[in-house]
Specification:
Strand order of the largest sheet: 1-4-5-6-7-8-9
Distance between the termini: 26 Å
Shape: globular
Number of helices: 15
Helix content: 40-55%
Structural class: alpha/beta
Radius of gyration: 19 Å
Number of strands: 9
Largest sheet: 7 strands, parallel
Bound molecules: coproporphyrinogen III
Length: about 325
């Protein structure tokens, strides 16, 4: 969950010389910051340094990253003709920087840990395209769903097509698994998820099957949606801290793996408190195979790196012992 980033002084040193987009687009730089948390924090996998928003540029969206508000879309999508204007593109060519970075990272990692590729889910990407940026209530997104379902489904279909191609290209470049981030899906009611998002996510995961790599389906605030998210697909289903991971496992079923679910705010506490949360999660996850310990959402910018390191050590130590209270 955002292994690289502002919490690491070593990241900030590189970031002070480049914009965020430049860092994503210079393969040597992207490779360096991808590997930093493996060396500095000791995590068991690397995640490609990139962003869910970048392929939207290829489709013709004006993308900018601001310091204060995160990603911004300059001409938000509101009408059918704008959806029709979004074009297909040769992903291997237009996003060659990402695939060059992947090849470089795989080589530099030399098999130490696997590299995970990723993309945004259709709903989360559509919400950025329609709102123009991050949103509190997703009103514009929902109004398009309710009032212009044809436009909505057209947009979701185009995004899903693009995502299947983009993740396929990541796998061909060398990633060992792919994660699909549906970060803002928790704003939907179960009925709206089923009607407006799930068919597209399901088609995406179906489209990923031939790639033959493990897939992770991540979402937040999904307590009311978790069974449907499981049914949409993914070998691994993300669970955030709002749902206890034992309940998540029971509801998802033991034929899937789960990922989660430490509240990133716990890392601002002390090692005693962190350890009690880690023990609780490991004990709840139980001895069934298939639990990826992770934060429930992205690491926060002011997190003390020493606590991130301590967390990784605790998880390694306690899970090796089978953990007990
Ligand atoms: O190790 C890594 O950091 C992996 C690379 C990664 C980034 N973004 C880099 C990034 C990944 C996997 C993402 C995914 C992403 N991007 C998601 C899904 C995961 C999640 O957190 O829910 C979303 C919703 C985005 C969109 C996005 N990008 C936001 C909302 C922001 C700004 C807010 C924030 O947390 O900073 C970004 C910018 C961004 N993407 C940064 C990084 C390291 C910060 C850039 C900086 O240095 O200023």
């Amino acid at each position: 969950m955002r292994q690289a980033g502002r919490y690491l002084p070593e990241y900030r040193a590189i970031r002070s010389k480049h914009s965020f987009m430049e860092m994503c687009k210079i393969p040597e730089v992207a490779a360096e910051v991808t590997i930093q948390p493996v060396d500095l924090i000791g995590v068991d996998a690397a995640i490609l340094f990139s962003d869910i928003m970048l392929p939207l540029e290829g489709m013709g969206a004006g993308l900018e990253f601001t310091e204060s508000a995160g990603p911004i879309i300059k001409n938000p999508i509101r009408e059918l003709n704008q959806v029709e204007d979004m074009h297909t593109f040769d992903v291997e060519d237009v996003m060659s920087y990402a695939f060059d970075a992947i090849k470089l990272i795989v080589k530099e990692l030399g098999g130490r840990v696997p590299l995970i590729g990723f993309a945004g889910a259709p709903f989360t990407l559509a919400s950025y395209l329609i709102e123009g940026g991050h949103s509190r209530n997703y009103t514009k997104t929902k109004i398009m769903m309710y009032n212009e379902p044809v436009v909505w489904h057209r947009l979701m279909t185009k995004l899903t097509d693009m995502l299947i191609g983009y993740l396929g290209a990541q796998v061909r470049a060398g990633v060992a698994a792919v994660q699909v981030f549906d970060s803002w899906i928790g704003c939907l009611s179960p009925g709206d998820y089923e009607e407006f998002a799930m068919p597209h996510s399901k088609r995406l995961f179906e489209g990923l099957k031939p790639l033959d790599v493990p897939t992770i389906h991540f979402g937040t605030e999904t307590s009311t949606l978790i069974e449907k998210i499981r049914d949409a697909g993914g070998d691994v289903v993300g669970v955030d801290w709002r749902l206890n991971i034992d309940e998540g496992r029971r509801r998802i079923g033991y034929d899937r793996a789960v990922q989660g679910n430490l509240d990133p705010n716990v890392l601002f506490s002390n090692t005693k408190v962190i350890e009690s949360h880690v023990r609780d999660i490991l004990n709840r996850a139980g001895t069934h195979p298939g639990h990826i310990f992770n934060l429930g959402h992205g690491i926060l910018p002011e997190t003390p790196p020493a606590n991130a390191r301590a967390l990784v050590e605790m998880v390694h130590e306690l899970s090796a012992k089978g953990c007990a209270t």
